[in-house]
Specification:
Bound molecules: ribulose-5-phosphate
Order of helices and strands: HEHEHEEEEHEEHEEEEHEEEE
Strand order of the largest sheet: 3-2-1-4-7-15-16
Largest sheet: 7 strands, mixed
Oligomer: single chain
Strand content: 25-35%
Structural class: alpha/beta
Radius of gyration: 17 Å
Shape: globular
Helix content: 25-40%
Low-confidence stretches: none
Distance between the termini: 26 Å
Number of strands: 16
Number of domains: 2
Mean pLDDT: 97
């Protein structure tokens, strides 16, 4: 296969994820540019699924525009499959997510689901999590206190801005992006940060890790089962 662009790799894995969608069911849908490719592909089988539970206002809008019904997460007890991208994924299926600021709802929908199918181009594959700045959704009044806790771990936390003002998530909260971390034990790290007052969600997905990764490579889609 000739050299594919990152965008083409995202299209490839977005389409490949259709094989994991269970006909007749509701599918969990993540957020981001890779997931947008999945949503576009899903439109082709919209008459064969009941609909979707979405992880962001942006994905909801795209799903609805393509004629796919969107259910509230509270209407659903269990989903077979959740399809989402990642900012980083390691050889155990642990991920960093939240580049699109949707990490809280992504974790909620992932926790509803039996299987997490991660779709990613090969630039996202890392041996150890921590190269990508770690997103953490926080209650605004706790931001500086949490930033100091990260500093004690050797990290540098910066408030995410949009158009020069703090970005506000779909849940009305702020995002800290933390650099300088080397997350050798993602399960323990996730639990530790979750315990800090004011943390809404940490972007380490270890307890809600991927079961399968469809990795877009220049030689095609590689399926990694964890
Ligand atoms: C959004 C996410 C995305 O899945 C992650 O940022 C990857 O995005 P993209 O597919 O655009 O590279 O976690 O909160």
């Amino acid at each position: 296969m000739s050299e594919l662009t990152q965008d083409e790799l995202k299209t490839l894995v977005g389409r490949a994820a259709l094989e994991h969608v269970v006909p007749g069911e509701i599918v969990g849908v993540g957020t981001g540019s890779t997931v947008n490719k999945f949503i576009d592909a899903l439109a082709g089988m919209k008459d064969h699924i009941r609909g979707a539970v979405s992880s962001s206002e942006a994905s909801t809008e795209r799903l609805r525009a393509l004629g796919i019904s969107v259910f509230d997460a509270n209407e659903v007890e269990r989903l077979s499959v959740y399809v989402d991208g990642a900012d980083e994924i390691d050889p155990k299926g642990y991920m960093i997510k939240g580049g699109g600021a949707a990490l809280t709802r992504e974790k909620i929908v992932a926790a509803l689901s039996e299987r997490f199918v991660c779709i990613a181009d090969e630039s996202k594959w890392v041996p150890v999590l921590g190269r990508y700045p770690l997103p953490v959704e926080v209650i605004p009044m706790a931001a500086q206190q949490i930033a100091r806790r990260f500093a004690a771990l050797g990290g540098v936390a910066r408030l995410r801005l949009k158009d020069g003002v703090p970005l506000v998530t779909d849940n009305g909260q702020h995002i800290l992006d933390v650099t300088g971390l080397h997350i050798a034990d993602p399960l323990a790290f996730e639990s530790t940060v979750n315990d800090w007052p004011g943390v809404v969600t940490v972007g380490v997905f270890a307890h809600q890790k991927a079961h399968v990764c469809l990795l877009g490579t220049t030689s095609g889609v590689k399926t990694v089962v964890f």
